[in-house]
Write a structure and sequence with these properties.
The protein is of the alpha/beta class and 934 residues long. It contains 31 helices and 33 strands. Helix 3 links the parallel strand 2 and strand 3. One of its GO terms (molecular function) is acyltransferase activity, transferring groups other than amino-acyl groups.
Length: 934
């Protein structure tokens, strides 16, 4: 609200009417230096406010110099007060001032709203205003207070925070307070709202607001009303038409009913009112600039905006003087507007401030802090709206050597303001040849950003990134070939709701990806990630796009954060703003199933049936880990292992829909999920999620819990996430990563098998080479040997080791321990467990029964860290184990738990093949300290 009342006596200097009228204009010009035209306007016509746009500004240093020259020109011409220098600096895609070194890029208004933080909104607004103020700007053309009541087809897009009036209001006020904190004047736009305009098509037809005043009051006017109550300095009134019952306005900014009535009287605004640019073609053609200026001032506008045309600007000045001379405009009206303008200037500038801009010196000081703020804001804004199949991060779906395809559109730049858009439209209407946006450098800038994004993706991986653009020509043969060649596809869109070709192209690509076939001829979905890099409304409600990400602008900084999300370097935390986020909560719903404790007597048979259903659902020619598992192998009954298993079941039919086993190993403080599977006919219904959450909550309550592991050595059903199933492996990794497991740091483990032991012989020369291991080997049985062996295995902290060895030591008739000792001092340097099908350990090794032949097992090798030649000693232990198993009449041998990233050459030479492979994952308790209830 203005602090200088209408009755405040004005300084006599303002008795000069020409000087007074000059304060009622804000004007722009072409050029990066003070041109003769703008100099004349300042010196001869006393113009008091200047609007700078991107066409005036090349760098922070040049901007500082330009603004200083403008102010010095005004000072030397005898202006009583400095010029108000305004600038559109909304961030996102709307920045008039750009400087790679000194001016930071921040997310658009909607991008900031996606972070969910009003504090961050304040800090970003303050930082933005500090930067432009350092260059001499004292009026920032923001915040944007429009409510997107019709979000799908509006040019404002991400320039406002969304479709919820209270949310738009809250963020608008946060932006406004940030600007004020930095000492610049604020401007709300675009009153009474550009959030639901109807466009008739012709450049001579202005967009129309069809909502009634009552409808506007209940929705679109809320942010404007609240901003006024919090001290908004100025307001831009749009040039749109209004047509509803009782309201028929050709241009809002020329309407006394809108400015004096709605804004001044109803909303009690006594700050500065700025008109939309009177150069917009519809207004200048229908009314004329001179007449339009008179109408704007009579309507209640204090500043009349004219963007660039010197002839139009002269016409406006003549028109205002003529209006005064003919008494069409009262001098009281002029004086009231002058008071408001002077009040605003008194808050944001002085001659000392205007003639001493801090410039580069201050910007250099601000740069480190503002760079960190920019990164934080962008990292917090990226929104993964949907990721049904866990395609993000890319490591879930792409092996290092596979190719990734990036498809990006050719896009128009986003106009900085309605005023700038009017200028562009005017240029297009009066200039032959390509449209203005096609001639400008900014579209090339957009292409360069996408190219650099492709390079950033490529730098993160070994496999190639294929990158090409798409246009309104649709999916071409070259696109089809690249899609067929790539293992995954990323499509970027930019306002696809208004650029329909992008929508059609993306849907076509999605159809191709859904109809993809593997090299073996099997149908499989090719991973597709769609990224809306401007308006999030492109595919927000389109469930056929299963992975959908929003960045809210396509600046280089935004796409850098997108790269981090795609590669799992940051966890995306953004959320769609406004009511659209509420609709998203319905898709997909997450049901919370009743999870019950597993009852062996009640559920054992149903568990066997569930396991069979999972096995039967396995792809052809792929062996399921559950193929020979049974409910008997689930329960350990071990004194040092706490067990708790869970089911989701149908209490009427007693069928099991899902099962999860947990074990807590007291010796290492490790909580383990040993198995988690769901009826194939009931997947994607949140059964697995409900089981997982219950299991984690149980493990968190175990006393002494230090770490958590996915995959259990005992029982040895799943050693981790199964990794031998291609697409299924990626799906599972993505699912568990989404649940909090650190799949990026998973450890490959496997089980191996050697068959045909009856004819097996060690590789030639191996026995002799083992002599170089410098160890003696022997085979011992029973608890009498437990002391040194248990001390030795404590050199490894792997889960389940102690339990396996204790089972073996307590079962001397069916288990033994092969030891390796140093000859010189008898120190134990290596051990491995040996067992057969009659041992207690074998009950928990379903792979032994799966072979349908006499099988022995070798388990849990532990090599002392002090041993220099690990592989040679390991081969020696396994070789002796195989000889022993062969002597017992076995025809096959299982290695039940081996490091999957080791050198298999030696083991393959001994006759072993990989049977099952897994990713053993871990996490800490902090990951799930806030697990929601099932």
């Amino acid at each position: 609200m203005a602090t200088m009342g209408k009755e405040t006596k004005l300084d006599p200097v303002w008795d000069d009417m020409d000087r007074t009228l000059g304060q009622l204009f804000t004007m722009g010009f072409d050029g990066t230096t003070v041109t003769p035209q703008i100099r004349q306007l300042i010196q001869q016509h006393h113009i008091g406010s200047i609007l700078l746009t991107a066409k005036n500004l090349k760098s922070a240093e040049q901007t500082t110099n330009l603004i200083y020259e403008l102010q010095k020109t005004a000072y030397d011409a005898g202006h009583p007060v400095p010029l108000a220098i305004g600038l559109d600096q909304e961030n996102g895609g709307v920045n008039s001032l750009f400087d790679e070194i000194y001016i930071r890029q921040y997310p658009s208004a909607m991008g900031i709203a996606a972070t969910g933080s009003k504090e961050l909104a304040f800090e970003v607004a303050k930082a933005t205003a500090e930067e432009v103020a350092a260059c001499g700007i004292n009026l920032i053309m923001g915040p944007c207070l429009d409510v997107l009541t019709n979000a799908r087809n509006q040019p404002l897009g991400v320039r406002t925070t969304g479709d919820n009036p209270q949310e738009v209001s809250d963020y608008g006020i946060a932006f406004m307070k940030g600007y004020k904190e930095a000492g610049v004047a604020t401007l709300g736009k675009h009153f009474p709202s550009y959030g639901n305009l109807e466009f008739l098509g012709s450049a001579l037809d202005v967009p129309i607001i069809t909502e009634s005043l009552e409808q506007l009051s209940l929705n679109a006017l809320i942010p404007f009303r609240n901003a006024i109550n919090h001290g908004l300095d100025s307001m831009m009134v749009g040039g749109c038409a209004m047509s509803s019952a009782g309201l028929n306005v050709m241009h809002a900014c020329l309407s006394e009913q809108v400015v004096d009535g709605l804004l001044r009287s109803d909303l009690k605004f006594d700050g500065v009112v700025i008109s939309e640019c009177l150069e917009m073609e519809a207004l200048s053609h229908n009314i004329g600039v001179g007449g339009g200026t008179v109408m704007a001032v009579n309507a209640g506008c204090d500043l009349v905006l004219l963007c660039r045309s010197f002839s139009f600007q002269q016409d406006a000045i003549r028109g205002l003087k003529s209006g005064i001379d003919s008494a069409m405009i009262s001098k009281t009206r002029i004086r009231n507007s002058l008071r408001r303008v002077l009040t605003m200037k008194s808050k944001c500038t002085s001659w000392d401030k205007a003639l001493n801009p801090p410039g580069i010196n201050l910007l250099s000081t601000l740069q480190p802090l503002h760079t960190a703020l920019s990164t934080k804001a962008y990292n917090s804004s990226i929104t993964v709206v949907r990721d049904k199949n866990q395609f993000v991060p890319l490591s879930n779906i792409l092996d290092l050597e596979e190719e990734l395809l990036l498809l990006t559109p050719l896009v128009k730049p986003l106009a900085a303001s309605a005023a700038a858009r009017a200028v562009v439209e005017s240029m297009e209407a009066h200039s032959p040849g390509p449209a203005a946006w096609e001639r400008s450098a900014s579209v090339m800038s957009g292409e360069r950003v996408f190219r650099e994004f492709g390079r950033s993706l490529a730098r993160q991986r070994n496999g190639r990134v294929l990158h090409t653009s798409y246009t309104a020509n649709g999916v071409r043969p070259v696109h089809e070939k690249l899609i067929d060649r790539a293992s995954a596809v990323i499509v970027l869109t930019a306002d696809a709701n208004r650029n329909i070709y992008q929508q059609g192209f993306t849907k076509h690509v999605a159809m191709i990806c859904n109809m993809s076939y593997s090299s073996g001829g099997e149908k499989k979905e090719k991973p597709l990630i769609v990224v809306a890099c401007s308006s999030p409304y492109d595919f927000a409600l389109d469930q056929s796009i299963s992975t959908y990400i929003c960045t809210y602008d396509f600046t280089e900084t935004a796409l850098n954060s997108l790269v981090k999300v795609l590669y799992g370097e940051i966890t995306p935390s953004g959320a769609l703003p406004g009511s659209i986020s509420q609709s998203q909560k319905l898709h997909p719903t997450r049901q919370h199933w009743l999870v019950e404790a597993y009852n062996e007597e009640r559920d054992a048979n149903a568990l066997d049936s569930l396991m069979k259903a999972v096995v039967d659902d396995s792809p052809p020619n792929q062996h399921s880990e559950l193929s020979c598992a049974s409910s008997n192998a689930v329960t350990l009954h071990h004194p040092e292992v706490l067990e708790a298993h869970f089911v989701v079941r149908n209490s009427t039919t007693h069928s099991l829909y899902g099962f999860c086993s947990t074990y807590f190993f007291k010796t290492t403080g490790t909580g383990v999920i040993g198995a988690l599977f769901v009826d194939p006919n009931r997947r994607k219904l949140s059964i697995g999620r409900s089981l997982h959450n219950r299991a984690i909550r149980t493990l968190l309550q175990r006393e002494g819990a230090k770490r958590f592991q996915l995959g259990s050595r005992l029982p040895s059903i799943f050693l981790g996430i199964p990794t031998g199933h291609g697409v299924e492996r990626r799906r599972l990794r993505g699912w568990f990563a989404n649940m909090g497991w650190n799949t990026a740091l998973s450890r490959p483990v496997c089980s191996m098998v050697a068959r045909n032991l009856s004819t097996w012989a060690p590789p030639e020369g191996m026995a002799k080479s083992l002599e170089s291991a410098g160890a003696r080997f022997d085979l011992v049985y029973g608890w009498d040997y437990s002391g040194p062996i248990l001390d030795h295995i404590r050199t490894s902290n792997r889960q389940g080791l102690s339990e396996v060895y204790k089972l073996a030591l307590n079962d001397p008739t069916a288990c033994g321990i092969i030891r390796a000792t140093r000859p010189e001092d008898g120190a134990l340097v290596g051990t491995v467990v040996l067992y057969n099908m009659q041992s207690h350990i074998a009950e928990y090794m379903p792979g032994m029964r799966d072979l349908n032949e006499a099988t022995g097992g070798i388990s849990s090798p532990v090599i002392s860290p002090a041993v220099g030649d690990y592989s040679t000693l390991l081969q020696g232990l396994i070789l002796l184990g195989m000889r022993q198993i062969k002597q017992q009449g076995c025809t096959a041998c299982i290695l039940d738990y081996m490091d999957g990233d080791g050198n298999f050459d030696g083991l393959s030479a001994m006759g072993f093949d990989v049977l099952h492979t897994f990713d053993e994952c871990s996490a800490d308790s902090v990951t799930w300290s806030m697990v929601p209830p099932s």
